[in-house]
Amino acid sequence: MFDLSGKVALITGSTKGIGKSIAEEMARAGAKVVISSRKADAVDAVTKELTDAGREALGVPCNIGVKAELQNLVDQTLAKWGRIDILVCNAAINPHFGSITKVSDDVFDKMMGSNIRSIFWLSNMVLPQMAERKDGAMVIISSIAALRGSNVNGLYGVTKAADAGLGRALAVEWGPHNIRVNSIAPGLIKTDFARALWEDDERRKRREGMTPLRRLGDAKDIGGVAVFLASDAARFMTGQLLVADGGVSIGW
Questions:
Q1: Is the pLDDT of residue 243 over 70?
Q2: Where along the chain do its domains lie?
Q3: CA 110 – CA 79 distance, rounded (Å)
Q4: At the topology level of CATH, where does 8-191+218-244 sit?
Q5: For residue 179, what is the enclosing H or E element?
Q6: Which DSSP symbol is given to 169?
């Protein structure tokens, strides 16, 4: 039920961290994967890693904040493989670390555009061709920040809560076409994206002590969850937000 053989998976922000892990695990499960991020050299490097390992991969650089680049990403995928079976919206930005009261209008607009609007755009570009086949899965990478307040990542949490809400709306709208849309809320994962949090010894030790599993997450911990949601193992799940945080959100 976890086999993705013959499926085409498009994953944004897939040259490092959680996105790369998702691409690697989906490729290992048999999917043809599309690697994408803003930096062309990083896209080429990860694509080569996968193809050298015998996987099928296509690399397409893309800035998720630019609609024309997202459309090019979709168009190149369809030109190469003729379909997109799995859409994973992972890429996001978080240029502000600190009080939400200090966020400038420009940063606010950029975060809303990249973290929310890009998913809205991609869903409109990709889901209609899934509907034609009456089959497809979309996975949105939200965050535990969508469920808990923060005095350093407040606006990021707002965007991630909106992502989960968008996922529920899409699940209701596209469900009759046999398209499933689910979200994942990772806890603190040791990636470059969250480096400011886990490299702070005091903050890291405090988080580890609050976490029932007594460790922070690795990118691979999320890759497997994404494979599950994209596979037939989750064929009766849609509109859900799965929390993968080592248990920190359920402890005292």
A1: yes
A2: 8-191+218-244
A3: 30
A4: Rossmann fold (3.40.50)
A5: strand 179-186
A6: H
CA distance 189 to 201: 15
Query: Is the torsion defined by CA of 122, 148, 237, 9 positive or negative?
Result: positive
Q: Nearest to residue 188, comparing CAs of 164, 210, 218?
A: 218
* Core vs surface per residue 153-180: b (16+ CB within 10 A) or e: bbbbbbbbbbbbebbbebbeebeeeebb
Which residues belong to the active site? 156
Residues 29-73: tens digit of each pLDDT: 999 999 999 999 999 999 999 999 999 999 999 999 999 999 999
At 198 the pLDDT is 66
Other CB atoms within 10 Å distance of the CB of residue 202: 7
**Residue in 4, 70, 9, 53 with CA at minimum distance from that of residue 35:** 9
pLDDT of amino acid 210: 86
